[in-house]
Amino acid sequence: MPHDSDDHTHAHSVLPSDATLRVKAIETLLISKGLIDPAALDAIVDTYQNKIGPKNGAMVVARAWSDSAFYDTLFYDTTETVADMGFYGRQGEHIMALQNTDEIHNIVVCTLCSCYPWPLLGIPPSWYKSDAYRARAVREPRKVLAEFGVTLPSETSVRVWDSTAELRYFVIPQRPKGTEGWSEKRLAALVTRDSMIGTGFPKDAQ
Out of 13, 17, 68, 113, which one is annotated catalytic? Predict the structure, then answer.
């Protein structure tokens, strides 16, 4: 939150954004006309924010790290493989997994809007939908990554993947060192949402 000695300016700085206000106005109008049920809407938001979130994706990554047969199947047909785990539905009809290695680091963006694999990662973060990220991730990916705290060796290539309504991308980050023999549940706890977008790394082994 910006700090400003001017009370008037400070008061405006805590107001929701124009986009948020427009969404709220539309929601209020639809509720008043009886076109949507607010309880059902809250349930949908809660499901994607708290029950799904990035947890499903973390389970996929953990299995890919620990099961070589699953890993091969995942990269052969990501959509079908994650659907077999129960992760499918709206915004997840067509998904492709990307592999991060020492040689290649993948980062995902949607330059047209905010296409995102909801069944795996939940609701996209606000920065993913911002004009700045959508434009700069393509033009200057290394600078964007550095702002997220991701510094890569010069010999590592950065590949930017543009998600669309037809195909959404999902990053399998590199497995943290020192996790040999870990269970999938323990591995999943290391996987972060940003690491599956490419703007972050998994947590270090503790």
Answer: 113
